[in-house]
Structure formats: C-alpha cells, structure tokens
Design a protein that fits this description.
With 318 residues, this protein is mainly α. The protein has 13 helices and no strands. Helix 8 crosses helix 10 and helix 8 runs antiparallel to helix 11. The chain is globular, with a radius of gyration of 24 Å.
Length: 318
C-alpha cells in the first residue's frame, strides 16, 4: 500500500510539472499582460518606461526562461504576488481553498448519500412506478443547467419565501458564527446536489441491477440472509466500485459546477477566484489556482484507487 501511494504521488508530481508548464505557456500567450494594463491606465508612460518595467518583471525574456525562474521560486514555496490583491498568492488562495473545500465536501456528502438511496430504491423496484419517477427526476436534474437551477432556487427560497439569503457568505453586521454562515451554504449545496444527484443515482441503479443478478446474491439468499443484509453487505459494496470510479472522474465537472455556483451565490471560493484572476490577467493567481484544481483532481483519483481495495478485498495495491 505504502509503495503504491508513493508511486502515485511521484506520478502526480510529474503531472503537476507538465501541467504547470502548459498552463504557464497558455497564460503567457494570452493577449495583454500586467505591463500592458499599467500602460493603458497611465497614458504618460514612454517607450523607455515600458522597456524598463518589462525588464524589471522579466517579461522581456523568452517564456522558457521565465518559466524556469518561476519554477525555481515555486520550489521554495514562493509563488509570487497577486497583481489584483497586492498580496502573496498563498495568502489569497488558502481562504478560498478552505471555502471551496467546505462547499464541495458538503455537496458530495449530501448528493452521494441521496444518490445511493435513490439508486438502491430504483434498482430494488425495477420497472415500477417509483423507479420511473426516480428516473424522471434524475433526467430532469441532468438536463437543467447549473446556473438555471441556482436562479430557480434563489427565486423560490430567497425571493418568494424569504427563508434563505440569496447570496453572500455571512450577514454584514450580524452575529456571525456557525449558525449565521450555515444558512449561506444551503442554496449552493442544494444547487450542486440537484445538478449531480441525478447522474449518480442512475449509475448506482445500473450497478445495483447488475449486481443483484449475480450468483453470489442468489447464494446469500439461499443461505437465509435477510433482504437488508443481502443489499447492504453483499450487493452495495460491489456496486459501489463503478460509482466511485465515476465520482473520481467527474471531479473536474464538479469543479466547473462549483465555479458557476460560487459566481451565482457570490461566494469567494476557488472557482470564483480563478475566474476573476483569468479575466483580470492576474497570472500568478490564475496559475496557482488552476494547479490547485489539478492537484485536487489527482488526489480524488488516488483516493478512488484506495477505496477500490477497501470495497473489494480481491484488489491488491501492493
């Protein structure tokens, strides 16, 4: 197990190096740079001023040389300064990363639990009215865009009913604390849950239907195992393997959903931060934000591989 984890971590470092070069190159090829923005906001700059600033910031060097200098600084955990916020990149990223981790963690917990329950019910009542109703709800959730789901939930719960705040992260001038911030998570979590629960309930249903036909399920029933024991201990554990795979592979799509959700609900998470950094040509912040998103995807795949061995003892990671 330890050797497998170390090997995967080494592969992840290689992937991050390649991705850092690709992202750095793509950002460097974007039209406009910080010097162009400074010149546009200060028409009095001369050509000599522009050349001096480019030399001072290293923008007059080839992109490979600039990347090498950035990589050397990054190896010492110096990721530069954010042009937009005038602060070190890590100072800006860490609170946003914490905010996104809370939102994604709550959303995954809610929609994965709900998807398992709905998928199991649909599989056990295959071709019944309940199964068709669950499938209809699943297809509706898959078909509706995330931004439209957010707008509908805001209109219903914030505008019409007035139960929940429409956007933000805490009440300005309010009491603060966990109870105050918790209500600002409800609508974003509901949005991500409605967007992703449908597809995962469909995957769970398909996997459960296939597993329930296996010989060992009939053997367990013949030995007198009760319905709950057959479903939970024998069927569900094996049915979860493809579901875990899909969840790990869908992490990129989940991050995209978080970007839209954080934008709609004005939450300062990683998705909103990366979006604003790209629009504002904040190179250092955009680069590190995208690398953090890549690292999260690699970590989710590693955790999925470890989960395989826990779900199925026949899978060895040695």
């Amino acid at each position: 197990m330890i050797r497998f984890v170390l090997s995967r971590l080494f592969q992840s470092v290689i992937v991050l190096l390649v991705m850092s070069f690709v992202i750095y190159g793509l950002i460097g090829l974007m039209p406009g740079d910080p010097i162009d923005l400074m010149v546009n906001s200060n028409p009095g700059f001369t050509a000599e001023d522009v050349a001096r600033l480019r030399a001072q910031y290293g923008l007059d060097q080839p992109i490979l040389s600039r990347y090498w200098h950035w990589l050397q600084a990054a190896a010492t955990l110096d990721f530069g300064y954010s042009r937009t916020y005038q602060q070190p990149v890590l100072t800006i990223l860490l609170p946003a990363l914490t905010q996104t981790a809370k939102l994604v963690g709550l959303a995954v917990l809610v929609f994965s639990t709900l998807a398992l329950l709905l998928g199991i019910l649909a599989a056990l009542t295959k071709d019944s009215l309940l199964d068709r109703a669950i499938n209809l709800l699943a297809f509706a959730g898959i078909s509706i865009p995330v931004f439209f789901l957010a707008l509908m939930l805001i209109y219903l719960f914030a505008v019409r009913l007035g139960w929940l705040p429409a956007s933000g992260m805490f009440t300005i001038g309010g009491p603060g604390g966990l109870a105050d911030s918790a209500k600002y998570y409800v609508l974003p979590v509901m949005t991500l849950t409605a967007a992703f629960v449908g597809q995962f309930s469909r995957y769970t249903r398909a996997s459960m239907v296939e597993v329930m036909r296996m010989d060992y399920i009939r053997t367990a029933r013949a030995k007198g195992a009760g319905p709950a024991r057959v479903v939970i201990k024998h069927a569900l554990r094996n049915a979860l393997i493809p579901v875990v795979t899909v969840l790990a592979l869908s992490f990129g799509g989940l991050m995209g959903g978080v970007l839209i959700t954080e934008t709609m609900f004005a939450q300062r998470g990683m998705g909103k931060l990366i979006y604003d950094a790209i629009l504002g040509n904040d190179f250092n912040l955009a680069l590190m934000g995208l690398l953090f998103a890549t690292s999260a995807t690699l970590l989710s795949n590693l955790l999925a591989d470890i989960a395989y061995a826990w779900l199925d003892p026949r899978i060895s990671l040695s």
